[in-house]
Amino acid sequence: MTRKQRRLYFVVLGVLAVGAAAALVLTALRQDIVFFFSPSEIVEAKIPTEGRRIRLGGLVEEGSVAKEGATVKFRITDGAHVVPVVFSGLLPDLFREGQGVVTEGKMGKDGTFVAAEVLAKHDENYMPKEVAESLKKTGHWQGEQKK
Amino acid sequence: MHRFANPARFMRIAALVYPWAVGVTILTLGAGLWLGLVGSPADYQQGESVRIMYIHVPSAWMGLFCYVSMAVCSAMALVWKHPLADLMARATAPVGAAFTFICLVTGALWGKPMWGAWWVWDARLTSMLILLFLYLGYMALADAFDDPQRGQKAAAILALVGVVNVPIIKYSVDWWNTLHQPASVVKMGGPSIDKTMLIPLMLMAVGFHAYWVVVLILRTRSEIAAAKVRTLRMAQVHAAGQAE
Fold first, then answer.
1. Does the beta-carbon distance from A94 to B114 stay under 8 Å?
2. Which of A26, A35, A126 sits opposite B179 (nearest CB)?
3. Which of A42, A106, A142, B138 sits 20 to 30 Å CA-CA off A5?
4. For A28-74, how does the pLDDT look when each residue is reduced to its tens digit (9 = 90+)?
């Protein structure tokens, strides 16, 4: 084996070893890397919610938004489970029914999530307004309304 | 590959490529900026804010692209000891760092009106910030030794270790749930972005790559010149030492 070959194997093995180490660390830290939990994970009690500040994310359920003064009540769904949320404060511009949101706050004793912060999550679809409308008209719409 | 490791041959090829790269940069960036800022429609959800995408997304791609080319050059420098590979890795680092920085700044400016936050610690944003630190660490380490060759070797190893971050950035939005939306262009099933917006985006991406070629040629030329100056100085000092 020439010195060049030895260096080549060393570099390749080194990168593979670092990659494997990174993969193991990231798998082990999965719970801490996810940015938010889904309603299913919270309803099925897969994560401890007692007194902890957590993030809950999903779609705002159609027809669930009710404003009472500065307080907004809505429900977050992931298609399987629903969690009611109450929030007092300014909502981001992209907040609307059927759109993705991530809320940060604490789980109340009555099963209502008390949010201290609401962030809008937008999807990966970009198109002009006219295209979106014609897709809706022709029934080819696969955007945020898909449940 | 080895044929291109010769600095004299690099200079010849660079002289041929350079005017074309300058031309492509000016044309595509001009057309891309006009189409992106004026000639393309607003988004159905995001309105006019979507125009930040035409800077943000190509910058992010360049951040990743420059890092991969830097790592490939570093590997070639470590294994085959090509002097030119070291110089090109060095020349690419600040360009990649600048694009990564632009990506982070435009991302923050875009995040505030759309998400409601300048910054969140989700997997995509955090791994992109780590990419910026890798670039800064690479540049600092390469210049931290009196002997430039030793600094280059240490920095090349850092560049190779950091390459694991590249797939993490790309797939962070698929592996973990993040506030950042998933990929729109490079994904299974084709882009989910309208043609009228995809064309300016692609023009900007081509323009940024051509710009990188321009800067790479300029910076590698000056690195070669600096290396020559260093060699001549060493020879002078050596000759003076022998004369005494």
1. yes
2. A35
3. B138
4. 888 788 888 888 888 887 777 777 888 999 999 888 888 888 889 99
